[in-house]
Amino acid sequence: MVVVRIWEGLGNQLFQYAYARALSLRTKDRVYLDISEYEMSPKPVRKYELCHFKIKQPVINCGRIFPFVNKDSFYTKNNQYLRYFPAGLIKEEDCYFKRDFCELKGLLYLKGWFQSEKYFKEFESHIREEIYPRNKIKITRGLRKILNSDNTVSVHIRRGDFGKDHNILPIEYYENSKRVILERVDNPYFIIFSDDILWVKENMNFGLNCFYMDKEYSYKDYEELMIMSRCKHNIIANSTFSWWGAWLNPSKDKIVIAPKKWFLYNPKKDFDIVPNDWIRV
Q1: Which has more confidence, 58 or 40?
Q2: pLDDT at site 78
Q3: pLDDT by residue (tens digit) across 125-173?
Q4: Rounded distance, CA 200 to CA 63, Å?
Q5: Which CATH architecture has domain 2-130?
Q6: What is the DSSP letter of 187?
Q7: Domains of the chain by residue range
Q8: For the segment 229-246, what is each residue's pLDDT rounded down to a tens digit?
Q9: 3-class DSSP state of 144
Q10: Strand order in 31-34's β-sheet?
Q11: At CB < 8 A and 24+ separation, what contacts does 108-111 make?
Q12: pLDDT tens digit string along 68-104?
């Protein structure tokens, strides 16, 4: 039995789920999702979002049994909880692909990022079927008409919650990305996603063929992600949220543009995050 911790926001939760699901399918072992991060914290910063999708892995709350599961000390070598997880308490410290993580079995507890499609590429069809909303998303008539066209491009501009080691992308990245799209897509229609739409309107120019996902539409995070995936092409931020919006895009001819440097001021290895067929700018 393997337990995979679910933590952080929606994009990270999806990576953790995809890893856990692929591990279960590959090893035929029982793999559980631990959601104690959200149920045991009195004021959780993030919400548990996987409940909105047709996920298949069972969910448990380890915090009810192991009260220190949310502490870094849970992963120390001499931890008293090792007797419950004799195969190990493993905490992944970086984001690059580790092949040996694909075959883990036994009584162990895992906390990691798993930010590479290499962990689950062989089970892509399963992942796509399961990361699908349980309930139908109500899309406005105007936006539905735009999404039904052949030239939509999602643009994700993230500003609000990055820490010092994961900085905001410069405007030049979006200008260069837009230039690539204009060279390859006839009359593109940009759909803008951001946690600061007002700033985008005041500081960036996407022309007249542009639709802003203003907060007045009241879409939830998972709904915005699925709308993003319905665009024909995608310009993503250094964000797991828009990474999934682009990856879930089913178009065989999609153009996905991602930043060359994912962690702008951090030496973390990021060369496994962006798929090889995406364009890095």
Answers
A1: 58
A2: 64
A3: 999 999 999 999 999 999 999 999 999 999 999 987 654 445 799 999 9
A4: 41
A5: 3-Layer(aba) Sandwich (3.40)
A6: S
A7: 2-130, 141-280
A8: 999 999 999 999 999 999
A9: helix
A10: 59-60, 31-34, 2-5, 108-111, 88-91
A11: 108/2, 108/3, 109/2, 109/3, 109/5, 109/34, 109/62, 109/69, 109/81, 109/85, 110/2, 110/3, 110/4, 110/5, 111/4, 111/5, 111/7, 111/75
A12: 776 666 766 667 767 778 778 888 888 889 999 999 9
Residue type, 22: A
The two structure tokens encoding residue 113: 């990022």
CA dihedral 189, 193, 197, 202 (to 10 degrees): -40
pLDDT of amino acid 85? 84
How many Å apart are CA 10 and CA 16, to the nearest integer? 10
User: Do residues 89 and 69 touch, judged by C-beta distance below 8 A?
Assistant: no
pTM above threshold 0.90: yes
Read off the pLDDT of residues 9-35 as tens digits, 9 standing for 90 and up.
Answer: 999 999 999 999 999 999 999 999 999
The correct CATH number of 141-280 out of 3.20.20.70, 3.40.50.2000, 3.40.980.10, 3.30.40.10 is 3.40.50.2000
The residue to which tokens 């995406």 are assigned: 278
